[in-house]
Amino acid sequence: MSSVLTGCAIMTGSPAPTYPQQKQALPSAVLSQHEDHLSPATVDRLLHRSITYHLGAGDVVSISVYLHPDLSVPQPGMASTGLIGTLVSNDGNIQLPLLGVVHVAGMTTKQLQAHLTTLYARYIIDPKVSVQLQVTHSIRYYLLGQFTKPGLVYSDRPLNVLEAMALGGSVNLAQANLRSAYVVQDGRKLPVNFHRLIVAGDLQQNIPLQTGDTVVVPSVSTMRAYVFGAVVTPGAVPFVNGRLSLLQALSDAGMNVNNLTIARLSEIRIIRSEGATGQFYVVNARRILEGKAAPFYLKSGDIVFVPQTDISSWNQALQLLLPSLQAISAVLNPFVSIKYLTK
């Protein structure tokens, strides 16, 4: 670790240094800052779409074929036996009169109705089929991270984020990294802002979930910033006790007296994102290094880019960053991956 940076870096977990000779607080090292958002259409498509229930193993459906009670399930007069329909097997199948085994997993009730109408049309004229979902046993969610009862949970109805989280007991907020929490749906992270949802009570973030979704609330021990550009060891830099200054991150990434001369410390770019919002900073780290500006503290998920040459625009910086972002796409906050990596 460089003696040049280590001497001026803020040791993580320690209070910010004081400067007795300064009667006023040091000025900010931030040269510029702006904010960007995912488009309303993108947010609506990802977060606010209606969730349609699809049949799965353990569900029970009743089937009625008009004027053909012998084909209905359950058949008339069987209510006394306690039967309310036919069970979807672990293979996703149901057993029906005349048709035998029918695969239904993944279908909605409307899709199953249309499918059965087509199948029964082979045997009867103009069949009138109705399908009712009687019992839902296939709704499941995965809760991972700082839950008192993490794991696989089941529900008898579709839930929203807060309802699903309640099935995992309580969340250990003291050890939870809410700024990096996320929902995985259909293999992609959704831009849900858990900090605003839980701390600020923003119910716009309380989106409906579909069965199979995963809710991840990581620990503060997983907090990382990502440093790229003119450093010796680009990549993830861990926080210590939940804190990490910009100079400490640069030092941990191998900034030393040799690459100080080629790095544009006065124009460091930082991308900070949460939910559907990204903040973009240009920071003069050289002024911090010289003791002329206050320390800049990073947040979990921040992306730090140290240019080697003058950067004329954020578009140019993002083009230079793109290969590095692609390499760590799995750990990026949703805003960055959706905004810059999704085609």
Textual characterization of the structure:
Helices cover 21% and strands 24% of the residues. It is α+β, with helices and mostly antiparallel strands. It has three domains: 3-39 and 223-341, Roll (Outer membrane lipoprotein wza fold like); 44-48 and 138-220, Outer membrane lipoprotein wza fold like (Roll), CATH 3.10.560.10; 60-135, wza like domain (wza like fold, 2-Layer Sandwich). It has a six-stranded mixed β-sheet, with helices on both faces. A five-stranded mixed β-sheet has the order 8-7-11-9-10. Strand 7 and strand 8 (151-155) form a beta hairpin. Helix 8 crosses helix 9 (334-341). The protein is elongated and about 85 Å long.
Q: What's the gyration radius in Å?
A: 28 Å
Q: So how many helices?
A: 9
- The residue-averaged pLDDT reads 89
Taken in chain order, the helices and strands follow as: HEHEEEEHEEEHEEHEEEHEEHEHH
The share of residues in extended strands comes to: 15-25%
CATH H-level homologous superfamily name of the largest domain: Outer membrane lipoprotein wza domain like
CATH class of the largest domain: Alpha Beta
Shape: elongated
Q: What separation lies between the terminal Cα atoms?
A: 39 Å
At CATH level 3, the topology of the largest domain is Outer membrane lipoprotein wza fold like
How does the major sheet shape up?
A: 6 strands, mixed
- The low-confidence parts are 6-17
Strand order, sheet with most strands: 1-15-14-16-12-13
Class from helix and strand fractions: alpha+beta
Tell me the CATH architecture of the largest domain.
Answer: Roll
Count of beta strands: 16
Q: What's the number of domains?
A: 3
Oligomer state of the chains in this structure: single chain
Helical proportion, percent range: 10-25%
